[in-house]
Amino acid sequence: MKTGIVDSPASLEHRLPDGHPEHAGRYSAVREALETVPVSEWLTAEQAPVEALARFHTVEHVDRVLSACAEAGEGEWVALDADTLVCGLSARAALSGVGGALMAVDRTVEDGEGAWFVLARPPGHHAEPDRAMGFCLFNQIALAAKHALDVHGLPSVTIVDIDVHHGNGTQCLAETDERVTFISLHQAPLYPGTGNAGETGLNGNIVNIPLPEGTGSADWRRAFEAEALPALRRAKPALVLVSAGFDAHRNDPLAGFALDENDYAWVAGQLAGIAREFAFSRLVSVLEGGYDCPALARSACAFVQALGEA
Ligand SMILES: [Zn+2]
């Protein structure tokens, strides 16, 4: 597939206290690795206009995040929950991440094809319409979905969340919008505690695939083939969106799955196949978690490379 990167260098401006797992070095590690992958285009993300956030978030939530950033001084932080903090420049990083996701949707829809990877932090899939949580401020993938549906007029999108944590924020979107199918493979029990198989949304548009600690390549791939692929085929998405977290890697310190970079290459091939079959080869992936930098970099690299070879 034709592949491109939308890069958000403003990711570096979201600085967190020493020892926080979601640190700026994650961005640098992935960026350095992706520079070795041949892609057709490498774009720089622009900040999303604040109005665009209202397609998923409440005005109060957006104000709360932006005010907290304004309140945080140089080298200081304001906490939005126990592990979600902002510094003075976090708003620029978060708005640029959203802007990158919207830009990727614009390009694949306008070009009529293309697999884009949005390199940005902080991640977004835990952010709910009215709440920042789990390191996430604004939900990039949910906003990308709304942009595709409401601005470009696509009839349907499917979001596949391969982060090891359940994308509770993104699920909120599917709970209220039947045009969205949300499919998540995640460790359970684990933060944030949502994502039971019994949460099925509107006419089954939510497919949660909880898997136990210790899940490795064979079981994860089997679950993807048995549950995610049939759900994708049923949904027939006009655009495939991917919450591309790489914290299901065996080296990740925050979770207990045992995948490796070959699994991310494999799943990229599966997702590209669905995008080709139903969505005119239109696919947008947004970086979510992944907290062991070498494993994160190798995994993101393998994922993007496999999209290009698919
Ligand atoms: Zn995660």
Q: What would you say this structure looks like, in words?
A:
The protein is α/β, with parallel strands linked by helices and 310 residues long. The chain has one domain: Arginase, Chain A, CATH 3.40.800.20. Helices cover 39% and strands 17% of the residues. Strands 2-1-5-10-9-6-7-8 form an 8-stranded parallel sheet, with helices on both faces. Strands 3-4 form a two-stranded antiparallel ribbon. Strand 6, helix 5 (168-176) and strand 7 form a beta-alpha-beta unit. Helix 3 crosses helix 4, helix 6 runs parallel beside helix 7 and helix 7 (261-278) packs parallel to helix 8. The longest helix is centred in the first third of the chain and has 22 residues, at 90-111. The chain is globular, with a radius of gyration of 17 Å. The chain starts with a strand and ends with a helix. The model has no long low-confidence stretch (mean pLDDT 98). The site of zinc ion has 7 residues, from loops.
Question: Which short descriptors sum up this protein?
Answer:
310 residues; alpha/beta; Arginase, Chain A; eight-stranded parallel beta sheet; two-stranded antiparallel sheet; 10 strands; 39% helix; binds zinc ion
